[in-house]
Design goal:
The complex is a heterodimer of chains A (about 260) and B (about 325). Chain A is mainly α and about 260 residues long. Helix content of chain A is about 70%, strand content about 0%. Chain A has a two-stranded antiparallel sheet with strand order 1-2. In chain A, α3 packs antiparallel against α8 and α6 packs antiparallel against α10. Chain A is globular, with a radius of gyration of 22 Å. Chain A starts with about 25 loop residues before the first helix and ends with a helix. With about 325 residues, chain B is an alpha/beta fold. In chain B, the strands form three sheets. Chain B has a six-stranded mixed beta sheet, sandwiched between helices. The radius of gyration of chain B is 24 Å and the shape is elongated. Chain B contains twelve helices and 13 strands. The chains are: A mainly alpha (about 260), B alpha/beta (about 325). Chains A and B meet through α1 and α4 of A and α4 and α6 of B.
Chain lengths: ~260, ~325
């Protein structure tokens, strides 16, 4: 054995990153990943806009509803649908990253778990906003939607806020269904919820189907998102939204704690 | 070897130990994965943590990284709590199965992880060291197992850590990938980084480590240079062709001085013992044996005898 040519050194103490590692590079790379996923882009950005043109373009779009018209009503519904898909996709990606071991890799860095969640939430927010914006721009271009500007904005913001219920659902399903299959379940699942949540076709109020639909997860948030337009907010819609949020958060937390205990 | 274990008195007093494990135990339910390990790793050492599967290697490395906590005992890294050492980027690791994001490119992955540290090296520098410059724009999902492992190595180099841990780093790699990978590690360690790697490949421990810590059943069963470990298993093996060996012949050989074991396999006989000359003389003069072969025990025999011995002791 010989002595090393370069003396052995150990570095001194070093600083840990600000904000637990939350930073712009991370955010932009995470966004880029989501936009790189063709399925996400198609189903959450293009598909809802296409549905808007299909539904709002039919006759009756100019019919009055509350403070606006049917075209605006469809716009809010589709914006919520698109935003729900993006946030669900963001939620399931957290679970996917855990299952492939990326979270373990990140645990070897100074990244704080809260900063990681904040990054994911920020991405979901940006993409959710994008999904809402695409449908809203489509409505402006189509030109038939009618709603006072303040209420229009309120609807868009509420749709974005409400879509976070599905981030929790995405996280939950991502843990239950291993790997990349989560979105294959969430896609049709959310379409079914959207149908029952009165987002696609109006269900006759008081019918048996309506009673079943009123307890499904997208029903409440849809009513809330459209409240500035319709001018009414039924109590059962709020109970529905809060209830499902609690269920999804509890489910995700339950699976997450099991996962952490194992890993 | 260019690397030396810095065991000189000066280094021991002026620099903190890189790794210090004291009476570390770790149990999972009823299973005792680690049963009392004491270990000190000094700056600049390249230490192999060698042992069969289930010996407690990964569990121990996880505790050094703060991914798991000891059930009892203490773990210190650079004089710090392991999680603090990780948070400061002073310890990094290439894990056996640490996941990567398939939808990022190699360079993006490096930029992603780089953004999390305060004390960092250049992306290009790190890619070059890991031999990934040409693959910078390739999607991780399209990289081979060896290339992905080099990427994990690049990620580990980003924070310029004082200690680099490698857990079975070449599992699933082909011979060429393995050699490229170890060359990159060796080149890097030459600059004085302390390296500790777990492996169950004897050749790897022998070829790349200055010091081998042999673990079995959650305990350290030997600790020293490869030569020292080999010396632990004394004796030689005598192998010969011996047709029609009956029980009496085998018993006679077994009764020779220093013989530890006789194994009659069809038309050949294998004798382990400390006095190979006596065995050889007996075989050639008193029996029909021919084609005699005498071999010293290698690291593999030391490994088997030291780890196998432990398995026989009750848990």
């Amino acid at each position: 054995m010989t002595t090393p040519a370069i003396p052995v050194t150990t570095t001194g103490p070093r600083a840990t990153p600000r904000l637990g590692g939350f930073n712009r590079v991370l955010l932009s790379l995470e966004l880029r990943r989501m936009l790189r996923n063709r399925r996400t882009v198609f189903f959450s950005l293009l598909f809802p806009a296409a549905l808007f043109f299909a539904f709002a373009g039919s006759s009756g779009g100019d019919e009055r509803v509350g403070h606006g018209n049917v075209s605006a009503y469809v716009m809010v519904s589709m914006a919520l649908y698109g935003a729900a898909l993006t946030t669900a996709s963001a939620g399931s990606s957290v679970a996917l990253e855990r299952s492939v071991g990326w979270s373990r890799q990140l645990r070897l860095t100074p990244l704080h778990p809260l900063a990681y969640i904040a990054t994911k939430a920020a991405c979901a927010l940006v993409l959710g906003a994008l999904a809402v914006a695409v449908v809203n721009v489509a409505a402006v271009l189509q030109g038939r939607a009618d709603l006072p500007a303040g209420r229009w904005l309120a609807c868009a913001l509420l749709a974005l806020l409400c879509s976070f219920v599905f981030a929790a659902l995405g996280l939950f399903v991502g843990y239950v269904v291993p790997g990349e299959n989560a979105m294959q379940l969430l896609g049709p699942g959310l379409a079914l919820f959207a149908f029952l949540g009165n987002l696609f076709i109006p269900i006759t109020e008081g019918s048996t189907l309506w009673h079943v639909a009123s307890v499904t997860p997208m029903f409440g948030v849809a009513e809330i998102s459209r409240a500035p337009l319709t001018g009414e907010l039924p109590w059962y819609a709020v109970v529905n939204a809060v209830g499902w949020l609690a269920v999804f958060v509890a489910g995700a937390a339950w699976r997450m704690s099991k996962d952490t205990a194992r890993g | 070897m260019n690397q030396t274990s810095t065991l000189s008195p000066q280094s021991a007093t002026t620099r903190p130990d890189v790794v210090r494990l004291q009476q570390v135990r770790r149990t999972f339910g009823d299973v005792e994965a680690v049963r009392g390990i004491d270990l000190v790793v000094r700056p600049g050492e390249v230490v192999a943590f060698l042992g069969p599967n289930g010996a407690g290697k990964t569990t121990t490395l996880d505790m050094v990284l703060g991914l798991g906590r000891p059930t009892s005992g203490t773990v210190q890294v650079l004089g710090l709590d392991p999680r603090d050492a990780v948070a400061q980027g002073r310890v990094a690791a290439v894990m056996q199965s640490g996941g990567l994001l398939k939808d990022l490119t190699v360079a993006e992955t490096v930029r992603y992880v780089r953004s999390l540290f305060t004390h960092v090296r250049d992306v290009d520098d790190v890619l070059a060291r890991a031999g990934l410059t040409a693959l910078a724009d390739r999607r991780v999902g399209l990289c081979s197992g060896g290339e992905q492992q080099r990427l994990r190595f690049a990620l580990a180099l980003l924070s310029d850590p004082d200690l680099l841990l490698l857990d079975e780093p070449t599992t699933g790699m082909d011979v060429e990938g393995r050699r490229t990978f170890w060359n990159a590690i060796r080149d890097d360690a030459r600059h004085g980084r302390t390296v500790m790697f777990a492996t169950h490949y004897l050749e790897e421990a022998d070829a790349y480590a200055d010091r081998i810590v042999l673990v079995s059943g959650g305990r350290i069963v030997a600790d020293g240079t490869a030569a020292e470990i080999k010396a632990r298993a004394v004796g030689r093996t005598v192998r010969a062709t011996l047709p029609d060996a009956d029980d009496a012949t085998v018993a006679e050989i077994a009764a020779l001085p220093g013989v530890e074991g006789v194994d009659g396999r069809g038309s050949s006989v294998v004798v382990h013992g400390t006095d190979s000359d006596a065995v050889a003389r007996h075989l050639l003069t008193r029996t029909a044996a021919h084609d005699l072969e005498i071999v010293g025990r290698g690291l593999e025999d030391a490994f088997l005898s030291l780890t196998g011995a432990d398995e026989r002791t009750p848990a």
